Amino acid sequence: MIKKLIISIAALGTLLGWRGPETQYMYPVSINEILTNSMSDTPKLKRMDQAVDSFMTYWDLKGASLAIMRNDSLLYAKGYGWADKEKGRPMTPGTTMRMASVSKLVTAIGIMVLQEKGALNLQTPVFGPFGILKEYDKYITDDNYYLMTVEHLLRHQGGFPRRFGDPMFSTRTIMQQNRLSKAPDTETLLKLELPKRLDFEPGTSQSYSNIGYLLLSLIIEKVSGKSYEQFMQEEVLHKAGCYDFHIAGNYYSDAYKGESKYYAHSDCQPVLDLMGSGRMVDIPYGGNDITALMGAGAWVGSSIELARLMSSINGLMRVPDILGFFSISQMTEYYDEETYPLGWVDARENGELTRTGSFTGTSAIIKYYPDGECWIMLTNTSTWRGSRFTKNTAGLFSNLRQRFSKSLPRQDLFLEK
Description:
Elements: H1 9-15, E1 18-19, E2 27-28, H2 46-59, E3 63-70, E4 73-84, E5 89-90, E6 97-98, H3 102-116, H4 150-154, H5 171-178, H6 186-193, H7 210-224, H8 228-237, E7 246-247, E8 271-272, E9 280-281, E10 299-301, H9 303-311, H10 325-332, E11 346-347, E12 353-359, E13 362-368, E14 373-379, H11 386-404
Antiparallel strand pairs: 1-2, 3-4, 3-14, 4-5, 6-10, 7-10, 8-9, 11-12, 12-13, 13-14
């Protein structure tokens, strides 16, 4: 359903994140700087807060943030626990965190923006003489690569082999096999991976692929002429009113202002730093090359700016959309229970959408429901039962919606100054 609302010029400016008119030029401000936990405090939701606290205790989570949106209005936003327990810094609605594979949804939006600009389409080949990334043809030995399209990458239908593990998370093995002193850069990784034969002809099956979304990141760079991060910030995120998204660093010292600290599960042991320092490190800080994931899993952002991004791709009109109706329909189209949608990890026939993400020190989930509610949770702590944790979080959302949806505040935190 599309709501037609008349928005005043002043409200529109607020929606787009502008401050003024006290300055000569209006400039953007992130809602991360504005919203506080107290803005969502209400006696009616004390039991909901208690349920979230109990969930965190059960899963031994140091911190989490929850954002709830309905029909483009942000009704509830709160941080629970600690953003950095050792420094006594509490979690807030605006605390930013790594979002793992939720980054894929962000990347897919970028691809759709380029399609709307006429710079590519979903059937554009990835490799070959007319391919966007034809400069990598020199590494290819399997002609099936030349059948691969942008859409195949978006739907995890590229056919990339997984027999020896996910190359984006098998860095240690790759280093040992190729006698590398530190994690390979993108060029080196593709030089090693592209000569391998595909597991199936692109488009004939599907297999979840991080390297496919790395290639989509490179496609965005090639077509736009900008770095992946720069294009996504300038042409996608800022236009959606999201001003505090960044590509993650690998170490605690790389953290952005307002970013959380990350915690591995309790039985996780230190590992050798992948970046070649020779030190033993906690896995969230040097155990994986997070930065190298790019659009497959490297974005840092807050739950409330994720909600803002969702409000800009849902076809409603209170918050201006950054995609047209056709692109939104393409991204959310249901094919069957087996086919991955574009960017999302699951699309149901009734319109329910899901995007999840997790790796050591991080978990994230977005659930968009047919009634217009969108629930988002980010945590700064991993569990050893990744898939079970995701299912439990979805179950938590279902339970809380049933009990508290009617009690959510009648407010729009997107309009807070």
